[in-house]
Amino acid sequence: MVFYENALALNEVSVQLNPAEVVGVFGSNGAGKTTLLNTVAGLTLVYARREARRGGVRVTVAGQVRLEGQDVTAWDVPERVRRGLVLCRERHAVFRDLTVSENLRLGGYLRSRAEVEESVAFACELMPPLRRLWRKPAGMLSGGEQQMVAIGMALAARPRWLLLDEPLLGLSPALQAEIVRVVGEIRRHGVAVLVAEQYARAVLPVVDRGYVVESGALVLSGTRSELASQAEVQAAYFGGSWASPRTHP
Amino acid sequence: MPELLTVLVYGLVQAAVLLLVALGFSVTFGLSGIPNFSHGGVYILSGFVCWFSLRKLGWPYPLAVAASVAVAATVGLLVYAAVIRPVRRLVLAEVIATFAVGVAMLELFRWMGLVTYEFNLPAVVAGSVALGDVVVDAHRLVVVASAAGLGLALWWFGRATRTGLALRAMAQEEYTALSLGIREDRMAALSVVLGSALAAVAAVLVLPLGLISINLGYDAMLVALAVTVTGGTERTAGLVLAALLLGLSTVVAGVLIGPHWSEVVYLAAIVAVLAVRPSGILGRLKELEERV
Known about the structure:
The complex is a heterodimer.
Chain A: E1 2-4, E2 7-10, E3 22-26, H1 33-41, H2 43-54, E4 59-61, E5 66-67, E6 70-71, H3 77-83, E7 85-88, H4 100-107, H5 113-126, H6 129-132, H7 143-156, E8 161-165, H8 173-188, E9 192-197, H9 200-203, E10 209-214, E11 217-223, H10 224-229, H11 231-237
Parallel strand pairs in A: 3-9, 3-10, 7-8, 8-9
Antiparallel strand pairs in A: 1-2, 1-4, 5-6, 10-11
Chain B: H1 2-32, H2 39-56, H3 61-84, H4 91-111, E1 128-131, E2 134-137, H5 138-160, H6 162-172, H7 174-179, H8 184-206, H9 215-231, H10 236-256, H11 262-276, H12 286-289
Antiparallel strand pairs in B: 1-2
Helix pairs in contact in B: 1-5, 1-8, 1-9, 1-10, 2-3, 2-4, 2-8, 2-9, 3-8, 5-6, 6-8, 9-10, 9-11, 10-11
């Protein structure tokens, strides 16, 4: 559970991610997807401590994060990243003044030089445009290119569990399909992916299982085919709140 | 024409002095957002440490410089841990706390009686050089070369090293940097330590141009603020440009009006930049620009 002051941002949400599977977390804007991923990655704890220090918003986090059965709830972010739990934040989170090459190298901040070289080579193999953009500042790239850089950075951290927060946000259908292909390839290389998306339709083909959250609570869960076959999901797909395509700026 | 050359040469020297004095403060503020006003105190402390190592302990010059840098870096770390960390992200508290530390250090030196003419540092290189009709101390040319070298070294550090990249990343997208496992607290401490070490480098290069005077600590705070506000903190080029503008302006003001007008130039620059372009000449903080 996560509270911001007295507002309940996440309530009794429990998700499980098994090795080498892609699990979707679907929900509308403000449903709690980002809070869920930030909490699993440890960022909500950082935010809570920071706010407590400056007397700002009171953030309460309850519940457990377990990695292969081990309770890592109290671990800070670097420890989780070292263990292989890596978050790729929403809105094409790149360092705008750094070049693509610098962004990718920084992704492997906690890894050895050899490991970074290997994982950056893997990222470039998955997303060939990265090589062409190597020396460009990330801030000069298109949204799709920035998303590739953001995913490349996360890959440079050598994840075993990758948390992708709205990777399709603001992308054209063609670029969305490309990112979905990349997610499938990442899974094929043994990395488990938890992908939060508002636009479920595009990402569903690559998802093994999924959860639907609304107003911070879990409302549905099931395999891809179960989710797709449920009447309410179908309704939501074609005109409902959580799966309807957004208009992008 | 010879006067113009004199103004240009001494303006360049003054710009190098300003850049050196401001660099430590700017680096800390630019990388972690910490306005470390203990800078002036650390600057003068470094001068005294160098003087003590040279004159009282009889250490060779490079060792005395190393001691100054080491002491300044350690003091920076202590200031961060004891004073800044408890009030981190409370900007006003950071300003007040670090300013109090800087003033306390400087006034402590005054109380200890460190105010006599014996406190001076030797020039790195003795003698003078003629540039056309203008004769310049060799040490002033060392100051110019050092400022350029230090600027380039910082540029390289920010691009070629993992720590430099992490510091830049933290300054740009804090939560993304945190999500990669970069520790904010460690980076903030490092930025203060780096800034304090740069204050020591500035001290051993700039203080030989005169006496180690406690008032120069207050001047250092003003200069650091003027260069940082004028240039903006996001790009080293902005700081260099600000130092050049302020350096030339103070020399011109000194020649045309009087040497005591230099501080007016700094204050006028701060007021003018804040009124017209608050993120600095090459600054890119949109939220600041939109307020004008």
